[in-house]
Amino acid sequence: DAGVIQSPRHEVTEMGQEVTLRCKPISGHDYLFWYRQTMMRGLELLIYFNNNVPIDDSGMPEDRFSAKMPNASFSTLKIQPSEPRDSAVYFCASSLNYQGNYGYTFGSGTRLTVV
Amino acid sequence: GQQLNQSPQSMFIQEGEDVSMNCTSSSIFNTWLWYKQDPGEGPVLLIALYKAGELTSNGRLTAQFGITRKDSFLNISASIPSDVGIYFCAGQSLGGSQGNLIFGKGTKLSVKP
């Protein structure tokens, strides 16, 4: 299995531009998570999906952030308009809906820089 | 909200030394997980613990689920340079859904050859 695949690995954009981050979870995993990592705040859960349905988006910073999961093999996180404070590493993770197994498999992340 | 206190924040050790780090919680957890993050990569699961008192090893790594269910520790024996990275604890509270996995702030480990 190729694991969780994220693209792009690096993104540099100007303030005000729209940014779209992409994620392909591991086939067969029922849960998908979007995290943001910064030095100050560590790993923050933004939103997660179960069977393609958003379950909890309380971690999404504000209306500029949106996430979709149109099918079991693809999810996007969009920031519009982007701001310098959005600069961070964004991780996607997926897991099996298996009682007793709560390990998440993370992608390699997208490093976003907004200038 | 729930928080995990992970300590120490960073460690600088000599190759061959043993390492110990821990996490404490203000509430009871039913699952403790330990992850390692290499530079430029996502966290990778090292050890998962599901029962109070459980002691689990993975090579040179040993982790324990505290009896009180509010803490966990990770030990690394005979450290080597490739142990360098950030180690995260993560926990899930009783009755929590899959999305309630809470991460500590991490322990940054540096190993001097």
Descriptive notes:
The complex is a heterodimer of chains A (115) and B (113). With 115 residues, chain A is mainly β. Chain A has no helices and 11 strands. Chain A has strands at 5-7, 10-13, 19-24, 31-38, 42-50, 53-56, 65-71, 74-79, 88-95, 105-106, 110-114. In chain A, β5 and β6 (53-56) form a beta hairpin. With 113 residues, chain B is mainly beta. Chain B contains no helices and 11 strands. Chain B has strands at 4-7, 10-14, 19-25, 29-37, 44-49, 55-58, 61-65, 71-76, 85-93, 101-103, 107-112. In chain B, β7 (61-65) and β8 form a beta hairpin. Chains A and B meet through β5, β9 and β10 of A and β5 of B.
Helix count of chain A equals 0
Radius of gyration of chain A: 13 Å
Percent of residues in helices of chain A: under 10%
Helical/strand content category of chain A: mainly beta
Topology of chain A as a string of helices (H) and strands (E): EEEEEEEEEEE
- Number of DSSP E strands of chain A: 11
Oligomeric state of the chains present here? heterodimer
* Average predicted confidence as pLDDT of chain A: 92
Poorly predicted segments of chain B? none
Largest sheet of chain B: 6 strands, mixed
Q: For the report, how would you describe the main beta sheet of chain A?
A: 7 strands, mixed
Task: State the end-to-end CA separation of chain A.
Answer: 36 Å
Which overall shape of chain B is indicated by the principal axes computed on the Cα atoms?
Answer: globular
Q: If you compute it from the alpha carbons, what radius of gyration of chain B comes out, rounded to the nearest whole angstrom? A: 13 Å
Poorly predicted spans of chain A:
none
Order of helices and strands of chain B: EEEEEEEEEEE
* Mean pLDDT over the residues of chain B: 91
Terminal CA distance of chain B: 40 Å
